TrEMBL record:
Record-given protein name: Rieske-type oxygenase
Start and end residues of each Rieske domain: 36-138
PANTHER family (alphabetical): 3-KETOSTEROID-9-ALPHA-MONOOXYGENASE, OXYGENASE COMPONENT (PTHR21266:SF60), IRON-SULFUR DOMAIN CONTAINING PROTEIN (PTHR21266)
UniProt entry tagged with the keyword Mitochondrion: no
Source organism: Amycolatopsis speibonae
Cofactor(s) annotated in UniProt: Fe cation
PROSITE patterns, sorted: RIESKE
Protein's UniProt keywords contain Aminoacyl-tRNA synthetase: no
InterPro entries: Cholesterol_7-desaturase, KshA-like_C, Rieske_2Fe-2S, Rieske_2Fe-2S_sf
Keywords noted in UniProt: 2Fe-2S, Iron, Iron-sulfur, Lipid degradation, Lipid metabolism, Metal-binding, Oxidoreductase, Steroid metabolism
Subunit structure: Homotrimer. The two-component system 3-ketosteroid-9-alpha-monooxygenase is composed of an oxygenase component KshA and a reductase component KshB.
Length: 369
């Protein structure tokens, strides 16, 4: 089950009445195109209906009794009731709470609440959705175009996350994943000493990969993770989904971790951190203990991710950063993200040490209009 945190409540409280600093939003739009993780598959058993925010609007996510995942726009086309407040699954249909009109899995109205024939062409609007690694993802495109790429599984079903923590943060999805390319922050923020670091983000692909070998700096507060060297391999797919494999060789411990996010309004996103322990001390954890062990490691993982929050909460986006030797491949990452927007971005500029622009803007190759 997802778990909301006090950080989340703090952020929501801070959001109420706050002024948005326009310098924080130099992106062409607040919502890059792509797949966004909105909940775990295990949060949505057959028959359940949940509400989520995506790009400033509600969506309704439900699963039919046979297990079909569906995501729809929230308002009933009959008289406008919100299907996320009292809508219910009846076999393969979603039933509106107001007059009990029923909509099948194609969105078509198949029944009214009065036993009268359903009005012709009365339909819910379906939103594209999929599941990967046991996470429910929803497609967003600022122009309403259908998806042109898919998120693929990175683990077999027995290693999918069963628990996650959800944070509401004042940030932009591009900025959160830039953290992975930001080699320079691992020492100061995560108290980690990198022995190696590699990053690959082809302009032609919707994925990026990063890996590093590292050891904790002295006196870190990461419990068992402080013990020894570890290796992390991350694969991001778009700006809504990243999965990681963490190996701690001396402890015989292999973990899988996820960071999935969804922009909920122009300045806030929900970040979900999931974790699954694959092996611990060389063993597959006994079934009865495995959930407890997952939760224990999730606490440690979230503690580490949360070290970034005070910086994210208060920083601005520097479209022309002053990069120096020792920084990570920030501009490579920023060139890669262009495919998730239409139009031109300012971000492919960096300022070199002599003050020159490192690169001029380039038309987004994915702009199809
Ligand atoms: S508003 Fe949904 S059935 Fe009437
Ligand atoms: Fe970080």
């Amino acid at each position: 089950m997802s778990e909301r945190t006090s950080e989340n409540r703090d952020q929501l409280a801070a959001h109420a009445g706050q002024q948005v600093n326009p310098r924080r939003l130099p992106y062409p739009n607040a919502y890059p195109n792509g797949w966004y993780g909105v909940c775990l598959s295990s949060d949505l058993p057959p028959g359940r209906v949940v509400r989520r925010r995506l790009a400033g609007e509600d969506i309704v996510v439900y699963r039919t009794r046979s297990g079909l995942l569906r995501v729809v726009r929230p308002y009933c086309p009959h008289l406008g009731a919100h299907l996320g407040y009292g809508g219910a699954v009846d076999h393969e249909n979603l039933v509106c709470p107001f007059h009990h009109f029923a909509y099948d899995s194609t969105g078509a109205c198949v029944r009214t609440g009065y036993g009268t024939p359903p009005p012709p062409n009365l339909k819910l609007t379906l939103v594209e959705s999929c599941e990967a690694d046991g996470i429910i993802l929803v497609w967003y495109d600022v122009k309403g175009n259908p998806s042109n790429w898919k998120v693929h599984d990175t683990v077999p079903s027995h290693l999918q996350p069963r628990t996650c923590r959800t944070y509401t943060l004042r940030d932009h999805p591009q900025e959160v994943f830039e953290n992975i390319a930001d080699r320079g922050h691992f020492g100061p923020i995560h108290k980690t000493i990198l022995n190696s670091f590699s990053f690959e983000a082809p302009d032609t692909e919707t994925w990026f990969k990063a890996s590093w070998d590292a050891r904790p700096a002295a006196r870190t507060n990461l419990g068992i993770w402080s013990a020894t060297n570890f290796r992390v391999e991350v694969e991001g797919q778009g700006l809504g989904f990243a999965s990681a494999r963490v190996v701690i060789p001396k402890l015989g411990t292999h973990l899988r971790a996820w960071a999935v996010q969804v922009p909920i309004d122009p300045t806030h996103l929900e970040l979900r951190i999931g974790l699954r322990v694959e092996r611990i001390f060389g063993q597959i954890a006994p079934r009865l203990l495995s959930r407890l062990i997952d939760r224990a490691f999730l606490v440690l993982q979230c503690k580490d991710v949360a070290r970034d929050f005070p910086v994210w909460r208060n920083k601005i986006h520097q479209p022309r950063p002053r990069l120096v030797k020792g920084d990570g491949p920030i501009m490579e990452y920023r060139r890669w993200v262009r495919k998730f927007y239409y139009g031109e971005l300012e971000t492919p500029h960096a300022v070199t040490d002599n003050g020159d622009r490192a690169r001029t803007p380039v038309k987004n190759p994915s702009d199809m209009t």
